Amino acid sequence: MSAISPTAVYEAIQAALRRGERVGIATVVKTIGAAPCDIGVRMLLHADGSASGSFGGGRADEQAIKAMQQALQEGRSFLTHIHIDPDEAVGSCGATLEVFVEAISPEPRLIIAGAGHVAQALARFAADLDFRIVVIDDRRDLADPRTFGERVQLLFGDIAQTIRELRPDASTWVVIVTRGHRLDEEALRAAVESEAAYVGMIGSAGKIRNIFRNLLKAGIPRERLEQVHTPIGLDIGAVTPQEIALSIAAELVMTRRTGAKGTGAPLKTLHHLIEEVAPVSA
């Protein structure tokens, strides 16, 4: 591998984010000794495991790649030191690189199929959860900017076709809350045929069974339907559109924070702190 220019670095990062891919970045921020590279030199780790750039080759690059893999796995940034013995990297007689390692993720996009009361409430919740929100409906009277506000992109047209045109990717979440079974089925098919990271659909058990049967007959793999979050949301006894939207938003957070291993269970039941303070006598 050879060094890459700053312009090429930024172009590669932007291209990865547009594809919905995460990228690892390692930047030399300090050098000690006869370093084989200058301060500011970067390496990138792409979603397919390939790397761009170089800190001099050999074990220096291997250590940088390992650090970027850790950053992507843990979803955090950190400083690390790469120690280079003589002859381990081209142009070095022994050195230490102080490297800042970070993982950059694309801004998650939330596509809400349907613009009814649940969608309106969900958009309000999601706007504060760092989602870029797109709402789709074929009813112009509901796709009203005054209802959703300027933080939501509204699209009017055929719902399933618009989902396909948006090309959901690995940083896209799709929530289906349309007004009817046929629209739900069409929207769900468009969503599961995409690369969306999350697909959820509202509905009763009977409706979901029928839609699943139809999609299986249409050739949608069972494994893909197993990944659909439906009935959508966490079980909080929700009844009103606002409560249903809250249960959906909670599931979105829990699913997105996979590293936190959220269960959706009440925290009280997970810790039993009163038993630590006042154990029950035998």
TrEMBL record:
Domain XdhC Rossmann: start-end pairs: 110-252
SUPFAM superfamilies: NAD(P)-binding Rossmann-fold domains
PANTHER family: ALDEHYDE OXIDOREDUCTASE MOLYBDENUM COFACTOR ASSEMBLY PROTEIN, XANTHINE DEHYDROGENASE SUBUNIT A-RELATED
Name under which the protein is recorded: Xanthine dehydrogenase
Domain spans labelled XdhC- CoxI: 17-81
